[in-house]
Amino acid sequence: MRTASGEFYDRIESAFLMMAPVKITIPVSDYEKVERYYKDVLQFELQEDLFFLPNGARDVALKLLIVDAASRETSPPRRHFPIFSFLLHSNFMSYCDKLMSRGAVFESVISHPGGYYALLSDPEGNQFEVECENFDEVNKGVDPFSWPFYKRY
């Protein structure tokens, strides 16, 4: 027999898992600046204190963790490995073009036989990847050859 309190805790746990069973913590010192970047530039959806990917996925969310600048300076040297990666289904070049127009900082955009890959950095230097296995592109007017960080293999 289930008790009322047991059902209550089951509902809380279920709601928590529905929010995002996987959370990726991103260290930041300027919360407001990075929050605007993920919301306004990258178009992530903010719900409570979690950022959900713009591709509609709800099983993974980002959570910003405030770390003071002094801690960042005295911590071991930062390794520049991507913190997270997400997949687009199509229109990769249009997506990158839109992000650039909003101020996104790209390290590289690569076209390869298996699709596309982009490496970006947020305002705090945290890197992440965007990938797409599909060459479908609605906007044929995007010219990635004009981007200094574009490579085609």
**Which structural class is indicated by helix and strand composition?**
alpha/beta
- Cα(first) to Cα(last) distance is 62 Å
Helix content: 25-40%
- Strand and helix order: HEHEEEHEHEEEE
Work out the number of β strands: 9
Strand content: 25-35%
Number of helices: 4
- What's the pLDDT, averaged over the residues? 82
Radius of gyration: 18 Å
Q: Main β-sheet: number of strands, strand sense, barrel status?
A: 5 strands, mixed
Shape designation: globular
Strand order of the largest sheet: 5-8-7-6-9
Unreliable segments of 5+ consecutive residues: 8-17
In short:
This protein is of the alpha/beta class. It has 4 helices and 9 strands. The chain is 28% helix and 32% strand.
Please explain how this structure is put together.
- By secondary structure, the chain is of the alpha/beta class.
- The chain has helices at residues 4-19, 31-41, 69-74, 92-101; strands at 22-28, 45-47, 50-52, 60-66, 84-88, 105-112, 115-121, 127-132, 150-152.
- A hairpin with a 2-residue loop joins strand 2 (45-47) and strand 3.
Write the SSE topology:
Blueprint: H1 4-19, E1 22-28, H2 31-41, E2 45-47, E3 50-52, E4 60-66, H3 69-74, E5 84-88, H4 92-101, E6 105-112, E7 115-121, E8 127-132, E9 150-152
Parallel strand pairs: 1-4, 5-8, 6-9
Antiparallel strand pairs: 2-3, 3-4, 6-7, 7-8
Q: Any key phrases for this structure?
A:
153 residues; alpha/beta; four-stranded mixed β-sheet; five-stranded mixed β-sheet
